[in-house]
Structure formats: C-alpha cells, structure tokens
Amino acid sequence: DTEVTQTPKHLVMGMTNKKSLKCEQHMGHRAMYWYKQKAKKPPELMFVYSYEKLSINESVPSRFSPECPNSSLLNLHLHALQPEDSALYLCASSQGGTGFNEQFFGPGTRLTVL
Amino acid sequence: GQSLEQPSEVTAVEGAIVQINCTYQTSGFYGLSWYQQHDGGAPTFLSYNALDGLEETGRFSSFLSRSDSYGYLLLQELQMKDSASYFCAVRDTGRRALTFGSGTRLQVQP
C-alpha cells in the first residue's frame, strides 16, 4: 500500500465550527506532515511529526491543532477559522534519513471557511 | 532560512525537450528534490539529487551542481499530460522538512 488517504475531500465550515481533517498511511513511514496550499502557490509547511512527536510547528495559529494518535494516523483539528484559511490542506508522509526528501502526498482536503 | 528561484511559466510543444531551472540559497544543504502537481491534484515526487550530476528516470532527468547552488529538471519527448506545475524543493541539514520553490507552470501545446 503506497497511498496516503485523507478525509474528507471537501469541507465547508463556518467560523464558529469545530471540525477535524484526517490522514492515514500504511507505508510504515515515521514522518508525517501537514501543508496548506493556496491556488497557484507552493505547499506551505504547517507541522511535522517525527516518530509521533511534533518536531516542527511553523508558527501556525492555535486555531489549527495537530494530533498524531499513532504512527499511521494524523489529524488536524480546526476551530474558529477565518475565511483566509480557505485552502487545500495536504497531508504527506516519508521515511526518515534521506527519505525526508521523498514525500508521499494525499489528495488533500479542500476547505472553505464561510 | 532557505530561498529558491524558478521560472514561473514555461511553454513548449509536444515532442520537445524543456529544462526547468532552480537556484537555491540555504544555510545548509541536504539535497534537491522535484515534484509534479497537476491542477486539482496532489504533488508527486519525481526525483532527488544529493550529489552533483545527472539522475535519469525515464523521460525525466534531474541535475545538481552544489558549487553553483543550481539544479534543473529536464523533460524529454514532452507529452500533453506533462502540463502541470513543477516544484523544486530543498532540505536543510538538521531539518526534517522541505522548503518548496514557487513552482513552474509548464504548458505543453500540440
């Protein structure tokens, strides 16, 4: 299984809602990532988990809260988002060592905040 | 920090060869990667260069010159399906993450 899955594919939420994005991989990868991507822009790193511990937080606002329940799962909890948070949210995973350069991306969740 | 520069757009015809350049500035260096992303799709890994020289994978090749902080992606025998955005990405030593360039949008015309 060389796939990263993400649910849901699309999400529309109001600014007062709480929702969660889910990501799963069964490749045995020990690094997992959340990216945010706006149209015609590169993926922008948000968080990195390495061996289920948060290793990088790119100064992301606290309305985004990541969670790594186990080595296969990654969640992104959303609360009190702003319309400018509307974007494609991508999850990725990779092996350690030189494998950090080869990341496998999920199809993304397209988020719209009203 | 890191910064990468690549052209914003390139246009070529089917069957042609195109080269997408990437220059980078990093405080450390641990390899240059290339990713392809079709509209509406997710980025997919194409290649990785840690050492100077050319890496070939089918119609795609990637080159790195660490002394010049420069690399390129070479696409041969272009096909319409190669129309996509291409991102170079670098990893700093000691940092378990990639920084992506702004992307080059390749349009292949018939």
List keywords for this structure.
heterodimer, A: about 110 residues, mainly beta, 7-stranded mixed sheet, 4-stranded antiparallel sheet, about 0% helix, about 55% strand, B: about 110 residues, 6-stranded mixed sheet, 5-stranded antiparallel sheet, 11 strands
Description:
Chain A is mainly beta and 114 residues long. Chain A is built from no helices and eleven strands. In chain A, the strands form two sheets. In chain A, strands 2, 4, 5, 6, 9, 10 and 11 form a seven-stranded mixed β-sheet that branches. A four-stranded antiparallel β-sheet of chain A has the order 1-3-8-7, with no helix packed on it. In chain A, a hairpin with a 2-residue loop joins strand 7 (64-70) and strand 8. In chain A, 35% of the residues are buried. Chain B is mainly β. Helix content of chain B is 0%, strand content 56%. Chain B is built from no helices and eleven strands. In chain B, the strands form two sheets. In chain B, strands 2, 4, 5, 9, 10 and 11 form a six-stranded mixed β-sheet that branches. Chain B has a five-stranded antiparallel β-sheet with strand order 1-3-8-7-6, with no helix packed on it. The chains are: A mainly beta (114), B mainly beta (110). Chain A binds chain B through residues 31, 33, 40-45, 48, 50, 55-56, 90, 92, 96, 98, 100-108, and chain B through 30-31, 33, 41-45, 48, 50, 87, 89, 91, 95-103, 105.
